[in-house]
Design brief:
Length: 341
């Protein structure tokens, strides 16, 4: 171990501060997150306060009539931006950048959401560093991949794939099919039971669904699974109906595409890839669990026609296509198809 100290002019030893922050989660939790793809965590008080502020304001927003919500936050980019409702199931609002105009409720919600974004991103960045340390990946390897992601962009011209989504699940109906997220890391916070994570096992039926209750939950996404050469499992999860309904906040830290040519040498492979192409392929390998049933089923049929796996289990993690030498070719060539869970 390196001795992080230096002698002073008078001969005394001066110990320098550590180069990187100390681990946020201990080695046992890092191992659990890597093995299962999910981990419940305790949150710092500042983040808890921010969550409560966002939940109070989004209750006020969701209480408005549907036309007003659509007008304030028009849906765009499929389900990736703005207000979207799935009849008799759920409604949700997706932030990709700040909102500077509109009603008092909308602007207040945007300000509170931007604050939460920064705090949640800092937490996920720390956990990403802990995972990286366990895999001997230099922490600076993430700098380009997180460029512009750690605070909410000020305008639409500055957006990255990273997003913040506020859900209102309707009583007895709101749900989401089993899936793994597409990005690096996701944090989910719910007000009631409903979010369930898949805990894999070596014995039949090869795992169990565990309801996390209202605990904050970290999930590993497909992109991080791919970058880790499948050493980190993507977290399979689903949402089941709650008789009382529930609110949830989901922050998905996704790769920035501002530096498309990405060096894989720190990740164990002597090559570069086009991250824009990698991201496009990963996004194109899944259906949207938050779209309407009609759209979801149409997306599934298109994926099946392209040879993708649409299954009931942990297919993405078990697929030979989720990483490996042929999963993505060198920069300048086509990206191979990936399995979907």
């Amino acid at each position: 171990m390196a001795n992080n100290s230096t002698p002073s002019n008078n001969g005394e030893t001066i110990f320098m501060p550590p180069i990187h922050p100390p681990p946020l989660i201990d080695s046992l939790k890092v191992h659990r997150l890597a093995e299962t793809g999910s981990l419940t965590v305790d949150l710092p008080s500042a983040l808890t306060e921010s969550i409560n502020e966002v939940l109070t304001l989004d209750r006020a927003f969701f209480a408005e009539n549907t036309n007003a919500k659509r007008k304030e936050f028009p849906a765009a980019e499929g389900t990736e931006l703005g207000y979207y409702d799935v009849a008799n199931e759920k409604e949700y609002l997706t932030f990709r950048h700040q909102k500077t105009n509109g009603s008092k409720v909308s602007k207040s919600l945007s300000i509170a959401s931007a604050k939460f974004w920064s705090l949640a991103a800092a937490l996920l960045h720390r956990i990403l560093c802990d995972l990286s340390t366990s895999l001997n990946i230099p922490l600076e390897s993430w700098d380009n991949l997180l460029d512009g992601c750690l605070s909410m962009p000020a305008s639409s011209s500055e957006t990255t794939p990273t997003l913040l989504r506020l859900f209102n699940y309707f009583p007895g109906a709101g749900s989401a099919e089993r899936h793994t997220d597409t990005g690096l890391l996701t944090i989910c916070i719910g007000t009631a039971p409903g979010l369930q994570v898949w805990e894999p096992s070596d014995s039949p039926p090869n795992g169990n669904w565990i309801d996390v209750g209202g605990q904050a939950t970290i999930l590993i996404g497909k992109t991080l699974h791919w970058l880790s050469a499948r050493r980190l499992r993507a977290g399979l999860h689903r949402v089941v109906p709650n008789d009382q309904g529930r609110q949830s906040i989901v922050f998905a830290l996704r790769p920035s595409l501002r530096h498309p040519i990405f060096d894989l040498r720190p990740f164990g492979e002597p090559r570069t890839v086009d991250m824009s192409a990698v991201w496009k392929e990963i996004k194109g390998s899944v259906f949207s669990v938050n779209a309407t049933t009609k759209i979801r089923e149409a997306q599934k049929e298109r994926l099946k026609a392209r040879g993708h796996i649409i299954g009931d289990g942990d297919d993405w993690n078990n697929s030979s296509e989720s990483r490996g030498k042929d999963a993505v070719h060198r920069h300048g060539t086509e990206v191979g198809r990936s399995g979907c869970g």
